[in-house]
Amino acid sequence: MLANDAISLEIRQGEILGIFGPNGAGKTTLVRQMVALLRPSSGCIDLLGQDVVRHPSLVPRYVSFYG
């Protein structure tokens, strides 16, 4: 079973996201993918309509991440 398989998520401007789940569920992997620290093995992650893999410098302008 894949931890981050078939995830569809939309976070609107001004919203705060919290991710909860058991150890090994893929939470850290997902967040690292969302902030362009880890390349997704499939699919895409968009921030303001831009692919974070192709435009990683966009992420720190709009996303706060501590980890």
From TrEMBL:
Domain ABC transporter: 6-54
Keywords: ATP-binding, Hydrolase, Nucleotide-binding, Transport
Pfam family, one: ABC_tran
EC number: 3.6.3.-
Domain of life: Bacteria
Molecular function via GO: ATP binding; ATP hydrolysis activity
PANTHER family: ABC TRANSPORTER ATP-BINDING PROTEIN, DOXORUBICIN RESISTANCE ATP-BINDING PROTEIN DRRA
Stated name of the protein: Doxorubicin resistance ATP-binding protein DrrA
